[in-house]
């Protein structure tokens, strides 16, 4: 059996926002367009998660909403600015074979590098920019069997590659 991970960093947020906290910071206009483009790309490529496990921040919630994936989502406080180790723990508790994790850097980028057996030859992979989305497959029957460095590369995209400018 195979489990599939879709690992997405939230889209570009509005640093000039009047939000009362980092947690409440929304997407900016580019981020909204990027999240929509990511959702279209995921549907076009057939990368449709059975479940989404997301940070509860405003920008991750907006990213999920704009992607229009029609997948059930849970918002987990542990994913707000989570380390790679916390992301690993959260994923190992997932119950569906195709799971999306939606979170923040630097943890999500560190997790992407550590969980993949091979990484994409994309020039932006190592800084995991906003909206970066990695798709990996794992030869495991359940997420509880997850091991570091075991993900097989399926796909990788960033919004800049998807948007027509």
Give the topology.
Elements: E1 3-9, H1 29-45, E2 51-54, H2 58-67, E3 73-75, H3 84-92, E4 98-103, H4 107-115, E5 133-138, E6 152-157, H5 159-162
Parallel strand pairs: 1-4, 2-3, 2-4
Antiparallel strand pairs: 1-5, 5-6
Commentary on this structure:
It comes from Parasedimentitalea psychrophila. This is Histidine phosphatase family protein. By secondary structure, the protein is α/β, with parallel strands linked by helices. The protein has one domain: Rossmann fold (3-Layer(aba) Sandwich). Helix content is 30%, strand content 19%. It is built from five helices and six strands. The protein has helices spanning 29-45, 58-67, 84-92, 107-115, 159-162, and strands spanning 3-9, 51-54, 73-75, 98-103, 133-138, 152-157. Strands 3-2-4-1-5-6 form a six-stranded mixed β-sheet, with helices on both faces. Helix 1 crosses helix 2. The N and C termini lie far apart (40 Å).
Helix content: 25-40%
Using the coordinates shown, work out and report the CATH topology. Rossmann fold
| Strand-pairing-aware structural class | alpha/beta
Radius of gyration: 14 Å
Query: Mean pLDDT, as a whole number?
Result: 95
Number of helices, counting only DSSP H or I runs of 4 residues or more: 5
Global outline: globular
Q: What oligomerization state is this entry in?
A: single chain
Low-confidence stretches: none
Most strands sheet: 6 strands, mixed
CATH architecture: 3-Layer(aba) Sandwich
For the largest beta sheet, what order do the strands appear in spatially? 3-2-4-1-5-6
Query: What is the CATH H-level superfamily?
Result: Phosphoglycerate mutase-like
Whole-number total of structural domains: 1
Order of helices and strands: EHEHEHEHEEH
Terminal residue distance: 40 Å
InterPro entries: His_Pase_superF_clade-1, His_PPase_superfam
Pfam families: His_Phos_1 (PF00300)
Protein name: Histidine phosphatase family protein
């Amino acid at each position: 059996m195979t489990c599939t991970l879709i690992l997405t960093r939230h889209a570009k947020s509005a640093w000039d926002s009047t939000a009362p906290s980092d947690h409440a910071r929304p997407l900016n206009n580019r981020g909204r367009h990027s999240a929509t483009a990511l959702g279209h790309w995921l549907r076009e490529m057939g990368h449709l998660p059975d479940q989404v496990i997301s940070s509860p921040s405003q920008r991750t919630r907006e990213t999920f909403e704009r992607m229009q994936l029609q997948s059930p989502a849970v918002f987990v406080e542990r994913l707000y600015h989570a380390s790679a180790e916390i992301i690993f723990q959260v994923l190992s508790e997932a119950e569906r074979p195709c799971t999306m994790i939606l979170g923040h850097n630097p943890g999500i980028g560190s997790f992407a590098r550590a969980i993949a057996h091979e990484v994409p030859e994309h020039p932006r992979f190592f800084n995991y920019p906003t909206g970066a989305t990695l798709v990996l497959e794992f030869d495991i029957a359940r997420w509880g069997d997850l091991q570091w460095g075991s993900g097989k590369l399926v796909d990788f995209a960033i919004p800049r590659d998807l948007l027509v400018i």
